[in-house]
Design a protein that fits this description.
Elements: H1 2-13, H2 21-34, H3 40-43, H4 60-64, H5 80-96, H6 100-119, H7 126-140, H8 149-161, H9 170-175, H10 182-206, H11 214-220, E1 230-233, E2 249-253, H12 260-266, H13 269-285, H14 293-314, H15 319-324, H16 331-344, H17 350-365
Antiparallel strand pairs: 1-2
Helix pairs in contact: 2-5, 5-6, 6-7, 7-10, 10-13, 11-12, 11-13, 16-17
C-alpha cells in the first residue's frame, strides 16, 4: 500500500521542471486567439431564441442557484461589445503573461460561462468542451506563470535592487523553479477519459457493428449535410425520459462536410471499415499512454493523425485536442539541448540550427513523461 501511495504522490506531486507549463500556456492562448474564440460571447446572443430550448444549463444554473447571484441569460445585446472586448483583453493578457494567474482564472471562468450559455440552446460543442477544462487546469496548476511578462518584470526588478548588475540568468528566471507536474498530467488524464468514453459509447450503443463502416460512410458520403444540427426525437418517448418541456429529443447528429478524398473513401466499404476499426482501437487504447514513453509517443502521434483525418476528410476540426498534447512535452530539455549544441557549433547557419532543434526536439525530449509509469517501475 505504501508503494502505491508513494507512486501516486510521485506521479502528481514530485517537483520537475521538464514540462514548462508556461510554454504550453503561450501556445494554448495562440490557438485560442487563432480559433476566433474571442467571438464566443458574440455567438450566444445571435442564436434564435426558441422557447423550447431557452433553459439555463450548467454552469449558468449552478451560479444562479448559489444565492441571490443573478447571471445574465442570455447576454443582453447592448452589452455585447463590452463583453467581447473584456474577453479579448483576457486572452491577450493570458498570452503575454500580464497578471498571469488572475487573467487565466478570469478567462477560464468566463469561457466556462459562455460554454454554458452556448449549451443552453440545445447544442454541445465537443471541439471546445475539453479545451475549456484544460483552461481551468491551466489557471490553477503550478508552473503556468512561467515564461511571462510578469517574470520579465520580476527579473528586472531583482536586478535593479542589486544596483543594476543583471547577473542573474534570464532564461532560468523565466523558466522558474521545479513544480508539481499535476497540471500537464491531469490534462493527459482528461484526454484519456474522453477518448476512452467515446470508444465505450460506440460499443455501448452499436456494439461491434459500429466497426462495419456504415456510420463513417454516412458522414463521408455527405448524408449529414444540413444547415443545422439534426435533432432526433422519439414521438413515443416516456414522460420520465422527455427532454425540455416534452420535446423528447433522444439524439442529435452533427453536420460533416466531406472533402473529395472523404467522398472517395466512402465509395469503398473496405476503407471505411478499416478506418472504423482503427478509430475504435485508438479511442479504447489511448489510456495506454500511461504505460511507458513508447506508448505515449505512439498514441499522441496517432491522435494527431486521427484529428488531421477528421479535419481533412470530414471537415470536422478538433485542433484544440491536438494543441493539448503540447502540455506533456519536455520543452526545457529540448531547448537546453539545442542551446548546448549551438554553443559547441557556432558556425552553423540559422536554418541548420532550426533543423537541429527539430531533430533534438523529436528524438531526445519529445513526450518525455518523467519518472512516472503506471505499468512498470522504470521508463524504457
Amino acid at each position: 500500500m505504501r508503494f502505491l501511495v508513494a507512486k501516486w504522490n510521485r506521479f502528481w506531486f514530485e517537483p520537475t521542471s521538464q514540462y514548462q507549463f508556461g510554454v504550453f500556456r503561450i501556445l494554448f492562448m495562440v490557438w485560442f486567439i487563432a480559433a476566433d474564440r474571442a467571438d464566443r460571447p458574440l455567438s450566444v446572443v445571435l442564436y434564435p431564441q426558441s422557447p423550447e430550448l431557452m433553459e439555463p444549463q450548467f454552469p449558468v444554473a449552478l451560479l444562479n442557484a448559489l444565492g441571490e447571484l443573478s447571471v445574465p441569460y442570455p447576454i443582453p445585446e447592448e452589452y455585447r461589445a463590452m463583453v467581447v472586448a473584456a474577453f479579448t483583453l483576457l486572452l491577450w493578457t493570458s498570452l503575454v503573461g500580464i497578471l498571469t494567474r488572475p487573467s487565466l482564472a478570469l478567462l477560464a471562468v468566463a469561457n466556462l460561462y459562455f460554454e454554458g450559455l452556448h449549451s443552453s440552446f440545445g447544442l454541445f460543442s465537443h471541439a471546445t468542451s475539453l479545451p475549456s477544462l484544460a483552461l481551468l487546469v491551466l489557471a490553477a496548476a503550478p508552473g503556468s506563470t512561467s515564461w511571462s511578462g510578469d517574470g520579465v518584470l520580476l527579473w528586472f526588478w531583482r536586478n535593479v535592487r542589486h544596483r543594476g548588475s543583471f547577473k542573474s540568468d534570464l532564461f532560468r528566471s523565466l523558466a522558474g523553479p521545479a513544480v508539481a507536474p499535476w497540471g500537464p498530467r491531469l490534462i493527459l488524464v482528461l484526454l484519456a477519459i474522453v477518448y476512452f468514453a467515446s470508444g465505450v459509447s460506440k460499443l455501448r450503443h452499436s456494439g461491434l457493428q459500429w466497426a462495419d463502416g456504415e456510420t463513417l460512410n454516412y458522414y463521408l458520403s455527405g448524408k449529414s449535410i444540413t444547415n443545422w444540427t439534426q435533432f432526433v426525437a422519439d414521438p413515443a418517448v416516456l414522460l420520465s425520459q422527455d427532454w425540455r418541456d416534452g420535446v423528447g429529443v433522444g439524439a442529435y447528429l452533427y453536420r460533416a462536410i466531406p472533402t473529395p478524398p472523404g467522398v472517395f473513401i466512402a465509395r469503398h466499404r473496405a476503407l471505411t471499415c478499416v478506418l472504423s476499426i482503427l478509430t475504435l482501437l485508438f479511442e479504447l487504447g489511448f489510456p495506454l499512454v500511461f504505460c511507458g514513453r513508447r506508448w505515449r509517443i505512439f498514441f499522441l502521434l496517432a491522435g494527431v493523425g486521427f484529428h488531421t483525418g477528421t479535419a481533412k476528410l470530414m471537415g470536422i476540426p478538433f485542433w484544440g485536442y491536438t494543441v493539448m498534447y503540447l502540455a506533456v512535452i519536455d520543452w526545457r530539455g529540448a531547448l537546453e539541448a539545442t542551446l548546448r549544441r549551438g554553443k559547441s557549433r557556432p558556425s552553423r547557419s540559422c536554418s541548420k540550427n532550426a533543423v537541429r532543434f527539430l531533430i533534438s526536439f523529436s528524438s531526445q525530449s519529445l513526450f518525455q513523461g518523467g519518472k512516472y509509469n503506471s505499468c512498470s517501475q522504470q521508463e524504457n
